[in-house]
Amino acid sequence: MDILRRLGQYLDRPQFPWKKLIVGFQITQYLFEGFLSSRQYRVLQQTKPPRTLDGEIKQETFDKSQAYGRAKAQFGFVSGLYSQAQNFGTVYYDVLPKLWDLTGVWLYRYSPKEFTGEIMHTIIFFFTYNLLTTLINLPVSYFSTFVLEEKFGFNKSTVKLWVTDLLKGQALGIALGVPLLSAFLAIIQKTGNSFFYYLFLFGMAVQLFAITIYPIAILPLFNKLSPLEEGALKTGVEGLARRLNFPLDNLFVIDGSKRSAHSNAYFYGLPWKKHIVIYDTLIEKSETEEVVAVLSHELGHWSLSHTTKLFGIAQFHLFYIFALFSVFINNRSLYRSFGFHNEFPIIIGFILFSEALAPMDTIVKLLMNILSRKFEFEADEFAVKLGYSTELAKSLIKLQIQNLSTMDADWMYASYHFSHPILPERLGALGWSSREKKADPATTDGTKSSVATGREL
């Protein structure tokens, strides 16, 4: 506590250039990520697949994957520039203090006196700001869904569904955000300088509640979950769960094809009651044993305690964020740098603190991606030990083709951005090798492509 108090006093200096520092962080991060993207873009201009994939990926598929990657990179550059323009506009035109004052006028003019405190003011400010941000970013979201994803055949959504999801998201944000934001502010107001201990406990409770309530009340608002039908797949997955003593309660199929052609599978739930969800697109495009192999990888994360370790790291991260926030919450020089001279709202302090913390978060992101890639290799190895080496390799190749995922990556870009190893790295770790090269339709006379095969470890 004494260290945090001293740090707070040191940082709260009248001439401390908070605005220049935070804007400088934003510019530096944008330029750094642009540098990484330029390195990756050169990789996406390559015309031949990596040697590991030479016998697995048709030239036509590789070309399409590269084109998809370049299109996403170009979109990322433009959307990133658009986001930076928003940030600079917010700072330069003092949007935050002006919007805080405006929502305060609304509150005192139209609300009863008992609803005119900081909590109610913060709620109105927060959701007004969120609504404005959502509206400003609508063109970006629309282009991503109905131009970029549509061009490469992934979008299955309609404008009506897109708008419906948007409205549901806003309504859900209000329904959950009001009590959570109110509790967040009330805890800080009532617990003094030790508020971060109580916020940490509250954050943990919210996460456990979310794990419980999300599949029951939230997920069904956007997708339909149906029990997996009886058959070889259900038998195989249940057998795998029994083999690993995985506490499987339900097996669901989710209608992912309603919005996208991308495939996935995952599990969720409390430690004693787990549910597995398989995308209908994965079932449709994969063999039964390949789907089981994918799930053997996912259950490997559970068996090796990866999910528990990541949850523990997340709690430590949450605690250190709230502890550091206690250093900034009363930093008047930070508030004044951004136009708050008479009022010092808690939510504004948290927003500005989050911006100041960005460099540290970048380092945390890098370290978490390194750890995540390590866990992915370990889960692959777990699946190999269960005897799914070939099936997992085949499934990874199919998923790569179906999702047009990046076939190769610049090492610096991958280290910073990727939480999963790229396919050539995973196939190499699996010991996969192709014995027959897939035929390229562009160079054959209608001959059916041979099916790639592999070897077990």
Q: How many angstroms does the end-to-end distance come to? A: 54 Å
Question: What is the percentage of strand-forming residues?
Answer: 5-15%
Which regions have little confidence, pLDDT < 50, spanning 5+ residues? Answer: 435-457
What is Rg?
A: 25 Å
Question: How many distinct helices?
Answer: 18
Portion of residues within helices: 55-70%
Strands in their spatial order, largest beta sheet = 1-2-4-3
What is the global morphology?
globular
Sheet bearing the most strands, described?
Answer: 4 strands, mixed
What pattern of helices and strands is seen along the backbone? HHHHHHHHEHEEEHHHHHHHHH
Class per helix and strand makeup: mainly alpha
Q: Give the number of DSSP strands.
A: 4
For the residues shown, what is the average pLDDT?
89
Describe the structure.
68% of the residues lie in helices and 5% in strands. It is mainly α and 457 residues long. The protein has a four-stranded mixed beta sheet with strand order 1-2-4-3, with helices on both faces. Helix 9 runs parallel beside helix 11 and helix 11 packs across helix 16. The longest helix has 34 residues. The radius of gyration is 25 Å and the shape is globular. The N and C termini lie far apart (54 Å). The C terminus is likely disordered.
